[in-house]
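[step 3/7] fold_predict: job queued, chain A
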Amino acid sequence: MKRRQFITNAGLSATGLAAVTAAPAIAQDVREWRLLHAYPKGYPIYGTAPEKFAEFVTKASDGRLNIQVFGAGEVVPAFETMDAVRGGTAQMGFGTSYFWKGKVPALQFIPGLPFGMTVQEQNAWFISGGLELAQKAYDELNVKFFVAGNSGPQMGGWFNKEIASAADLSGIKMRMPGLGGEVLSAMGTTIVNLPGGELLPSMQSGAIDACEWIGPYLDMAFGFHKVAEYYYYPGWQEPSGINDLFVNMDEWNALPADLQEIVAAGAELANSYVLNELTAKNPEALRALVEDNGVNLKRFSDDTLIELGNTAGVLLNDLASSDPLSREILDSILSFRENTLNYTDISTRAVLEARALDYKYAGLVKN
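[step 4/7] structure written:
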């Protein structure tokens, strides 16, 4: 059975679900796998997505593939998850591709680019050749790659001072991973890469002056509003950002075809779960942050965003030019982005602008 490519954020189809759950149990050896993820145990959405995945696989396989999930620090620290899977400590891992960029530079381009693609565009890129390109990068680590979540548009970060211009980014210490962090570093920011569980105490102690995590719901869960006054948008650094699910390649190749199909379907389920949960919960969390907790919500100025964008353009080209696979992946993303820009403008963007006009809608009072 040929593995289906992941479905976009519409979620797992009913026919696909039936196909992987209808097969009768077969008397075979039961496989017991471990999945390590790079987020704190019990952390909402990013921590529960691997649990949802594992539950689905166990049920859909009729118990032939049982997966036990461990959070960051339970077996290895967050950033050692990939090494643990490659080395056989666990069969599977879950995180974000740029966590592993020190091992394969091209991986930092896979989660999304600064000023890059929307969720829909990024999902479309994956099914239009992006999956194969991503797998070329993960092949260097001897793991099988799956998309298993998308944050949607992120926020720009938490700061202890106002960012009135790009010059205010120079000299501060900030946690921002991936290519966004590279852009800020080029603009004079000192980047400190830390796993999620260390961010709040680092802000409290003054070890860092600012941090970027994901968005309102997950940021509020960490309590950043208790230690920072200013919350900036838009999340220029990640217009959308994926979670990766990866499987030790030897273990993957040893799976029967039907279990491979079930794992692939579980990744599709996790992909839609993350995006849908964040889309549903971010609005109320943002309201609570601003209205109940007094967070000062600020937009980066156009001049600041333009300078960030100009810096990003130069930096992305420089980074890709030093590595052939990075160049191949970046060129593919930029080409796809350019091809979709016009249609996104006259479809998604135009609808959002129309929706914001001053009209009455089913009794709704607009702010």
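[step 5/7] annotate
The chain has eleven helices and eleven strands.
The two ends are 53 Å apart (CA to CA).
exit 0
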